[in-house]
Design a protein that fits this description.
Strands 1-2-3-5-4 form a five-stranded mixed barrel. The protein is of the alpha+beta class. It is elongated, with a radius of gyration of 21 Å. The chain is built from two helices and five strands; from the N terminus they run ααβββββ. A hairpin with a 2-residue loop joins strand 4 and strand 5. The relative contact order is 0.18. It folds into two domains: 32 residues, no CATH class; 69 residues, Copper binding periplasmic protein CusF (OB fold (Dihydrolipoamide Acetyltransferase, E2P), Beta Barrel).
Length: 114
C-alpha cells in the first residue's frame, strides 16, 4: 500500500511541475468563455428573415443581445435544436436566447414573441 501512495505522490508532484495549478484552474473554469446560458440571460427580440432547416440555421434581425454584449444587427445563427425551426417562418417576430459555442453563435431557445 505504501508503494501505491508513493507513486500517487510522485505523479501529483510531476503534474504540479508540468501544469501550475493556477493555470489549470483558469483553463478549466474560465467563466468568461462558458457557453451555457444563465438564468440572467434575457430573451432578445428578433424577426425571422430566413430559415435553413437542413443546416439548422436561422437568419435573425435582432436587437441588442445583452449576454453577448452585441449590438442589434441581422445575422445567421446555428440553432441547437433544429426542431424549433419547424414552427417558424420568415417575418415571424420572436424572442430568443443566443450563446457563443465553439466560435459560433448558437440559439439555445427561440419562441414566438408575446
Amino acid at each position: 500500500m505504501n508503494t501505491i501512495q508513493n507513486i500517487l505522490a510522485i505523479s501529483a508532484l510531476a503534474m504540479g511541475m508540468a501544469m501550475p495549478v493556477s493555470s489549470f484552474a483558469q483553463a478549466m473554469m474560465d467563466h468568461g468563455k462558458m457557453a451555457m446560458p444563465h438564468a440572467s440571460d434575457a430573451m432578445t427580440d428578433g424577426e425571422v428573415k430566413k430559415i435553413d432547416v437542413d443546416n439548422g440555421k436561422v437568419t435573425l434581425k435582432h436587437g441588442e443581445i445583452k449576454n453577448l454584449d452585441m449590438p442589434g444587427m441581422t445575422m445567421v445563427f446555428t440553432v441547437r435544436d433544429k426542431g424549433q425551426l419547424a414552427k417558424l417562418k420568415a417575418g415571424d417576430k420572436v424572442q430568443f436566447v443566443a450563446v457563443q459555442e465553439g466560435g459560433k453563435m448558437v440559439v439555445t431557445d427561440i419562441q414566438p414573441a408575446r
